[in-house]
Amino acid sequence: MSELSISDWTILLTVQLLAIAIIDWKWQIIPNYLNSGLGLTGLVHAYDGDWRVVLYSVLAYVLVLIVFWSLTALYFKLRGQHALGLR
Fold first, then answer.
1. What are phi and psi of 84, to 5 degrees?
2. What is the pLDDT of residues 26-78, one digit of tens each?
3. How far apart are the first and last CA of the chain?
């Protein structure tokens, strides 16, 4: 794998975040594939030759996913409508 410089990562993240911002502004939703791409970029950037870093990052992602899913489920149970763009 070729090494990317800081400016390469900056350009990659800028393009991804710009796409997310434009789509969110226009349709008020952020597609899962853009979030997944952003997360994958973060995992690749975090990898420094030690797979434990990636494992810890994935575990943190799963934990955050569980928290947000639980909040969304609780909101739906209390209010009867979807929240956080989950429809």
1. 55, 30
2. 998 888 899 889 988 988 888 888 889 889 989 998 999 899 889 888 988 99
3. 38
Provide the token pair at 54.
């990636």
* CA separation for the pair 43, 40 (Å, rounded): 5
**Separation CA 87–CA 68 (nearest Å):** 14
User: Which tokens hold the place of 27?
Assistant: 């349709």
Q: Give the list of residues 6+ apart from residue 4 with CB closer than 8 angstroms, or none.
A: 12, 45
Concatenating the DSSP letter of every residue in 27-78 gives HS---HHHHHHHHHHHHHHH-SS-HHHHHHHHHHHHHHHHHHHHHHHHHHHH
